Amino acid sequence: MHYFICAGEPSGDLHAAKLIEEIKIADSGARFTFLGGDLMTSAAGCDPVIHYSRMAFMGFSEVLRNLRTIGSNITLAKKALEDSGADCFIAVDYPGFNLKLAKFAFSKGIPVYWYISPKVWAWKEYRVKSLRKYVRKMLCILPFEVEFYRKHRMEAVYVGNPSLEEIDARLREAPSKEQFCRQHGLDPGLPVLALVPGSRKGEIRNNLPIMTQVAEKHPELQAVIAGAPGRTAADYTDAGEIPVVSGCTFDLMAIADEALVTSGTATLECALAGTPQVVCYRANGFRLSYNLMKMILKIPFVSLPNLIAGKKVISEMLVHLCTVEGVDEELTKILPGTPGRAWMLEGHAEIRARLGEHGAAQRAAEVITTDLKRK
Questions:
Q1: Cα 325 from Cα 346, distance rounded (Å)
Q2: What is the residue range of 76's domain?
């Protein structure tokens, strides 16, 4: 079989590369044409039609500035898909671009499979109409997504969450607390409070001052800031005397005793590492932004750990709720010896159980190759 795959960013490149490896095991005659990165290149043994470095545009202004490039990429991708004679099209996340390719593939009679669902369950639910029309099977990596898609009369399969396997591998390779502290000039005898203010300048600007002021209320904890890739010392001017360690956010969360984490994928990583946390997300607009967010979002929680658990495991201090006093109150509830800490650790175990076993890419490959044989 000939598989055409599109992944438009680094995380998609990683997940798609593993999927390619598993497809090759399930289908010894597998051939590939793809849009992606270096990991997919290594797995497939050929070069991409377009490297994701020419595709990964984030935010409205960046997309607007690169409309001509995006249009050119779509045209080239459609031609490559048609010329390849592919037996299927596999979209890996990246919804804006992949939905256009899915529509084109459908028009050419090419079955479409989607691995790593777009987050239409959170917002832009109107896209489900197009997904239902063009996608043969949705391969979900979050358990609650299956019910969502079935409600919309789509065929959906939960294949497991690749992050679980990746995080467990990183945990096996992570340094011990003593090793980490000595490497970064910290005191291994003191408990560590990880401050993870995000990767974007705006996130750091809004969240770091709250986090550092909360840390100052706990001199018994050794606060350490996770410096994001591509950020400079100038981005952390609000850090004061708190040390910043760069390029090792996951290792810091893994050895930390507690963490304050800006909402995002880091919250799931932190939960799977077993570190109690408070989710923080300060933004401009305060209560108005919060009320607008509640109107737009179709979900009861924002953080992935709570969404997976289906209940509040982690406190979400969002927008106007993200104050020094509010975050400090929630942090105090999860310090060692508190009932809140025990409750959260039980929640972490439940999240792991809900995510299931390793092998998401293997199960996804089996679903796709088996379905194609029946076609």
A1: 26
A2: 2-160+359-374
User: 308: which 2 tokens?
Assistant: 């997976």
Task: Return d(Cα 136, Cα 71) in angstroms, integer.
Answer: 26
Asked if 160 and 190 touch (Cβ cutoff 8 Å), the reply is: no
Q: Which residues touch 270 (CB under 8 Å, ≥6 apart)?
A: 194, 196, 253, 259, 261, 277
Edge-to-edge strand ranges of the sheet holding 316-318: 244-246, 222-227, 192-196, 258-262, 277-281, 316-318
Report the Cα–Cα distance between both ends of the chain, in Å, rounded. Answer: 12
Judgement on whether residues 331 and 204 belong to the same structural domain of the protein = yes
- Residues whose CB is less than 8 angstroms from the CB of residue 236 and which lie 6 or more positions away in sequence, other chains included: 204, 208, 225, 227, 244
> How many angstroms from the chain centroid is the CA of residue 251?
17
User: Residue 215 has which token pair?
Assistant: 């840390």
Mean pLDDT in each 10-residue stretch from start to end of the chain (375 residues)? 94 94 97 96 96 69 64 92 97 93 97 93 82 96 94 95 93 96 96 93 90 96 92 87 94 97 90 96 61 54 90 90 94 96 95 94 97 86
My answer on whether 251 and 315 are in the same domain is yes
Say how far residue 67 (Cα) sits from the centre of its chain: 25
| Distance of alpha carbon 135 from alpha carbon 102, whole angstroms | 7
Residues 145 and 247 in one domain: no
Q: Tell me, yes or no, whether 364 and 343 share the same domain.
A: no
DSSP H or E segment with residue 86:
none
Residues 72 and 142 placed together within one structural domain of the fold: yes
Q: What is the DSSP letter of 99?
A: H
- The residue among 198, 220, 219 whose CA lies nearest residue 209 is 198
Helix and strand numbers, DSSP H then E, in the chain:
17, 12
- Cα–chain-centroid distance for residue 165? 14
Contact 70, 94 (CB under 8 A): no
